[in-house]
Automatic annotation (TrEMBL):
Protein name: Ribosomal RNA small subunit methyltransferase G
GO MF annotation: an example: rRNA (guanine-N7-)-methyltransferase activity
Biological source species: Methylobacterium mesophilicum SR1.6/6
Annotated binding of S-adenosyl-L-methionine, by residue: 73, 125-126, 141
Alphabetical UniProt keywords: Cytoplasm, Methyltransferase, rRNA processing, S-adenosyl-L-methionine, Transferase
Amino acid sequence: MTDPDRARVLAGSRVSRETAERLDLYVAQLRRWQPIKNLVGPATLTEVWSRHIDDALQLLDLAPEARSWLDLGSGAGIPGLILAIAGAERGIRVDLVESNARKCAFLTETARLTEAPVRVRNARIEAVIDAYVGTEIVCARALAPMTQLLAWTAPLLKTGTTGLFPKGRDVQAELTQAATQWTVVNDLVPSRTDSEARIVRVTALAAPSHR
């Protein structure tokens, strides 16, 4: 099956032919493992390039100089593994943290096939987050509400790491709720794959207020 969006996405992302071939390998792996592991919503496989690949690739444009990335709750490798594949030629390395061992098996095997510069950590976020102080970028997609994401990533966001968190139409409500517990410096970047979606870019975080 050829996704009609493939050519458009690849042209827009300006990746090399070798990187495009590695992204093709990723897509093939996703389709091969999906019936067994249920990695993504089955209906999205017909739009994998626009719904998943391009949705991940847009994060690279928001941090073009960053080299160290951390992806939480990596699941099917969206966005972390895709970012590693696409960013390998610019020296990016991504740590993928995932608590589900079966999903880690997919990530490990697909990273091997695509030669993606990643490290897969089969662990709970709260058990390993402190080890990533100093990471330039932390990201997570479809993992948890903003309040929980900020609680998990506070050790990083308080010390200079930038957070990139793709969110849907309820993003403002999530930020309003988060503001009752955190002082957050952020901006909202329109998603290029969904007119109702935004990417929350967090550049600073203060300790929870005690009101």
